[in-house]
Structures are given as structure tokens and as C-alpha cells.
Specification:
Elements lengths: L9 H12 L1 H17 L2 H4 L2 E7 L2 E6 L2 H9 L1 H11 L7 E6 L8
Parallel strand pairs: 2-3
Antiparallel strand pairs: 1-2
Length: 106
Amino acid sequence: MGKKRGAVPIGNVVADILARKGLGRQEATLELDRVWNKIIEKPLAEITRCGQIRRQRLEVIVENSTAMQELTFRKQELINLLNREIPQQQLKDIRFRVGTVHQKNK
């Protein structure tokens, strides 16, 4: 005879579905973008984009090396601000890299 299973809380079912569809990750990315744009001044926010968080390190794409250098100087300050705004992440590092932030219209 197999094991009897009890009722599964609906929150667990919904969380599982969201995780499988990647929707939880999308929400987390939107929240991260919102916080990033809140702590970064407008000119820099327009030329940067948050990437993924892996092993407590956030990747940020920056349109040019001059902006990347300025952000690198402010790295620890930015980590502290992000950790204050999103304490569940507890970032330890930010990796900046030059790349395309916005798709250009053709």
C-alpha cells in the first residue's frame, strides 16, 4: 500500500507552478530593477540594466566604460543600499560589464 498524502497547502502549489514557469524569477527581476532605479541617479539608471544574481553577486550591464568606472568606485555603497532595500538577497558583490542596455529601434 502506498503512503497516504495529506492536503498540500495552496501556497505551495502556486509557488511550485510559478517556479516551473519562471514567473517568480521575472517578478524578482522586476523588483530588482525597481530598486536599482531608485538608488541610482537618473542618468546612470538610463544606461544600466540589472542582470542575474548568482552566488550573492549581482551582474549589472553598463553601456560604456566611463559609467562602469564611476559605478565601480561606488560599488560598496551600492551593495549596502541594495541590501537595505532587498534584505532577503544579501548581496556580497556587484560585477559590472559593458554591454547593450536598450535594444535600438531599426
